[in-house]
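Section 5.1 Outputs to date
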Amino acid sequence: MDKAYLPADIETRIYAQWESRGYFAPSGAGPAFSIVIPPPNVTGTLHMGHAFQDTIMDALTRFHRMRGFDTLWQPGTDHAGIATQMVVERQLIAAGQSRAELGRDAFVARVWQWKETSGGMIAKQMRRLGASVDWQRDVFTLDPVMSLKVTEVFVRLYEDGLIYRGKRLVNWDPILKTALSDLEVVADEETGSLWHLRYPLSDGPGYLVVATTRPETMLGDAAVAVHPDDERYRHLVGRKVRLPLTERELPIIADTYVDPTFGSGCVKITPAHDFNDYELGQRHKLPMINIMTLDAALNDSVPQPYRGLDRFAAREKILADLDAIGLIERIEPHKLTVPRGDRSNAILEPLLTDQWFIDIKPLAAPAIRAVEEGRVSFVPETWTGVYYDWMHKIRDWCISRQLWWGHRIPAWYDAEGRCYVARSEVDARRAHGIAPDVALRQDDDVLDTWFSSALWPFSTLGWPEKTAALKTYYPTSVLVTGFDIIFFWVARMIMMGLKFVGDVPFRKVYIHGLILDQDGQKMSKSKGNVIDPLDIVDGISLEALLEKRTTGLMQPQMKAAIDKATRKQFPQGIAAYGTDALRLCFARLATQSRDLRFDMAKVEEYRNFCNKLWNASRYVLMNTENHNLSAAGAEFSLADRWIESRLKDMLGRIEAGFADFRLDVVANALYEFTWHEFCDWYVELSKAVLQSDAASEAAKRGTRFTLINTLEVLLRAMHPLAPFISEEIWQRVHVLAGASGETIMRAEFPRAESMSTDAQAEPEMRWVMDFILGVRQIHGEMDIPLARKLEVLLQNASARDLEYLDRNLPYLLRLGGVEPPRALKEGETAPISAVALLGNLEILVPMKGLIDPAAELERLAKRLRKAETEKSKLEAKLSNSQFAKNAPPDIVAKDQQRLEELRTEIGQLSAQTARVTKLKNQ
C-alpha cells in the first residue's frame, strides 16, 4: 500500500471498474430490495441536499446488496419543464433570438439538443460520489416511451371522469406566463404597506374601512365581509357599499372567515385574485371579476383610466385618485408574505385561467387508507400526521402548464372548440368519426412536471406492460426524500400507484432533514454559503470558490459581503477531502432531526479517520503478509478475544441502525470501533505480542489471524458508507483473510450473530485499559515525558486485581510506560504519590524525584489562573439573561459543557497543587 491515503488516485479508478463490470445491476437472486431515485432536474448540478440524500440511498442499497438481496436502485432525471425551458430561452436571448421567432417545434428541438450536450452533468457528479445505481436502466421523464405512459395515464383518468378542464384560481407567473405549483412558489416576508380605504355606504352617510396590501385589486372586489358575531357591523349585513372609482355596488356579507380583530374587522373580497376570497366567493355565489391580463396589466373589466396599466403603475394611480377624494383613512408599514416565482422572481398573481385539473378526492381516499392500514409507513412516524393533514384538506390538482417543453396534453379541438381526449390524433379521429379533412388543433399546454413524477415508481419498471421487473421490484422497498415534497410527490405517487397498479408504490417513506450551514442558515446563493459537494471531494482554490459564489450577483454590497465571509471561512480555499470522508460526515448527520447543520470540521475529522484506517491497514499488512495466518494451533490472547467481542457489538449496532434508518448510529458505531477500539487499542496491544521475543509463535499466529480477519470484517461493515477506501484496502486484505470474490460490493455483509460476546475478556480488558489510562493521566497531569518509565505501587489491590496484573503485565509495561507494578504490603505506608483510581484499587506513582516541586507549582499556578479566568468569563456570560434568551441552544449547551470541563480541570489542578506542595514541604 502507498504510504499516504490519496482518495483522488483511488476513487475514479474504482468506480470505473465497478460500472464497467456491471456490479450495480440486480443479481436476479434473493429477495428484492428496490429504491427509485427522486429524479433530479436535467438542468441541475449536485447540491448538498442531493449528495446527502444520495449517500443515504446508496448506503441502503449497498447494505442490502451485501445482505444477498436482489437490489435495484433506479436512476433517472426529470425534464424540469420551467427550469429547462428558461435555460434554453436565455441562450436564445443572448444570441438575439426569441422562442416566439423560433416556433414551437424548432424550440423543442433546440431544447433536446441542449439536453443531449449539457444535460448529463448531474449523472457524472453522482458517479463521483459513488452512487451504485443501475445506469443501464437510466430513464429521462420525457423519453418517448415514458411519454406514452404519461399519455396512457391521462387518457384513463379522463375516461374515468377524474380529469376535467375548468376555470380556477392558480399561481400565475406574469413573466413566464404559466401557472405554477405551490412548490415553485417562494414565499418570503417583505416590508410593504397596509392601506386602510374607505368604502362609502350606498344608502346613507358613513363608510366602512377595509385594509389591503394590494389596492390595485379593489377594482375586482365583489363584496365586503364582516364576522357574523361582530356587533359593530351586524346591522349592516345585507346592505351595500359603493366601490370607489367605479359605478358598482358591493353587498355587505357575513362569514366566519373574517378576523374581527384584524384592522377594522371589514375585509374586501376579491374572489378572482385571492385564494381565500375565492373560497368565500364560492360559498356566497359572488361574481368572479378578473381584472388582469396574462401580463399582469389591468384589462377592460376596469374603468377606462386604468386599462392597460401595469399592476404596480395602476396601484400608484388608484392610490392617488383615492387620496384626491379623501378615501384613504391611513397607511401603515406592514410585514407581508410575498409569493414569487422560484425561477423568474416575479411577484405572482392569483389569476383565473382555463386549466386542466384532476378531481383528486376519489384518488386521495384510498391513499389515506393505505397509510392508516400500515401498508405505507413514515420514518420518522411524526410525518404521518403531516400527510394526513394535507390529504384531508386536499384540493383538485392543476396539472396544466403554459409551456412548450414537457408532455403535451393529449387533447385536440375542432373549429367549434369541441375537445377530444385520446392517445393520439389518429385515435381521436377514429373514436369520434372525425374525417381527415376536418382540422384538429392539439392543446398548447403541457403537463405539470409532477404529473410524470407521480408515475415514477411503476413507469420506470415497464408499466403498463406486466413486466418481470414490475412484478419483482414493485412495490419498491423504501422512498428516501425530503419533507418539502411529501405533498407534491410522495402523496401523488401513492395515489397513482394504487390507481394504476393496485398497490402502494413503496412500503416505507424515510423523510430526512434539511442540510443547513454551520450557523443553522439555509444554503442559498444570495447568502453566499452554498458549498458544492464536489468542491469538498476534489478541493477548490479560494479564487475559484469566490468566482463560483459571486458570479451572477448584481448588488455590489452583497458581493463584497460574500467575498469577505468566504475569505474568512476558507482562507486557503477548500482542501480535497475525498468522497468517503464526505459520505461518512453525511451519515453522521442523518439523525431524525428536521434541521441538520453541516460543519466542515466534521469532514476533516472523517478525512483523518480515513487516514487512520489506511495507516492501521498498512501495519496489519506489514505484519501478516508472508506469514502463516491459519487459526490451527494458534493461541488467542485476551486482546484477540476482546476485539472480536467488540466487533460483534459494533455489528449489532450497525444492523440496528440500518433497520431503523439511523445512519448516524451506523456511522458512530464504525467510528468508535475503528478509531478507539481497533486502532488506538488493539493495534497497539498487538505490538506487545508481535514485537516481543518472549511471545510464543502460537500467540503471534493468533494475533496475526485476529488482525487480518478483524480488518477484513471491518472493511465489509464499512463499505456501505465508505465504499472506495473499503474496496481499495479489501482487495489487498481479503485473500489473506481467506475470503474470495472480485469485489467487496458483492461480498457478504458480516453478521453479528456469527460472532460471540466474550463475557470474560470484556471486563478484564476494560481493567487493563483503565489501568493504562490512569497512568497516562498521571503522565499528563504532572507533565512527565512519556518516555520515562514510572514506578507504580498498588494499594487496596484485590485478588482479582493481582490476577489481572499477572496475566496482562506485558500490555501494562508496553502501553503504560511503567516499571513492573508492586502491591503495597499490609501496613506499608505509601509515599506522597499521584493517584489514579480503578474501582477500589489505587494506582500510586511516587512523586519524589520525578519533578522539581517549585517549577511544578509555578506551572500549576499558571494553568489554574488561566482556567479560573476562563471560568469566570463563562459564568458571567451564561448568567446573562439576554445571552440565554437569544443565543442558539447549541451554543448555550456548548458553553455549559465547557464550564463543567473547566470546573473539573480546576479541581484536578487544585488537588495536584496540594500534593506537590506537600512534597515540597517534606
